[in-house]
Amino acid sequence: TFGVPARAVAAGEAAEFVRARPAAASLAIDALFGTGLQRDLEGGYAEVVASVNAARATGLRVLAVDSPSGIESSTGAVLGAAIVADETVTISLPKLVPSPLPKTTETLSLL
Fold first, then answer.
1. How far apart are CA 53 and CA 45, in angstroms?
2. Listed residue (108, 54, 110, 109) closest to 81, CA to CA
3. Which parts of the chain fold into alpha helices (H)?
4. Is the pLDDT higher at 109 or at 55?
5. What is the model's pLDDT at position 40?
6. Contact present, 81 and 41 (Cβ < 8 Å)
7. What Cα–Cα distance (Å) separates residue 79 from each residue in 1, 69, 76?
8. What is the pTM of this model?
9. From CA 100, how far away is CA 22, in angstroms rounded?
């Protein structure tokens, strides 16, 4: 963990965990779903997305992996709710997200 404490959170506790995040937490890594997501986010998943997005207003930075959760990667459509990421990194190959990127991300980087 590179000296950074990490904690696994059960799905039912995730939204509350984000809302009550420690003040020292400055970064969230969004890797909830892969690039094949085809359905709207609902229930607990939508709650987690809303909590992460609300935490951005208090200074939390968000790094998305491949595509922000809730974005359909081939069309860029928002599937019910979507993470607003400060940056998105894609691993290995660029993803087929339309250009310009959806307004849910500010920067796309290729690793």
1. 12
2. 54
3. 14-19, 43-56
4. 55
5. 94
6. yes
7. 31, 9, 9
8. 0.74
9. 34
Position 82: which residue type? Answer: A
Q: Which residue has the tokens 């599937």?
A: 79
pLDDT digits (tens, 9 = 90+) for 13-50: 777 777 776 666 788 889 888 788 889 999 888 988 99
Backbone angles phi, psi at 47, to 5 degrees: -65, -40
Neighbouring C-beta atoms of residue 28, cutoff 10 Å = 21
Question: C-alpha distances in angstroms, 107 versus 1, 65, 72, 73?
Answer: 25, 12, 17, 15
Q: Two tokens at 109?
A: 């980087």
Q: Cβ atoms within 10 A of the Cβ of 56, count?
A: 15
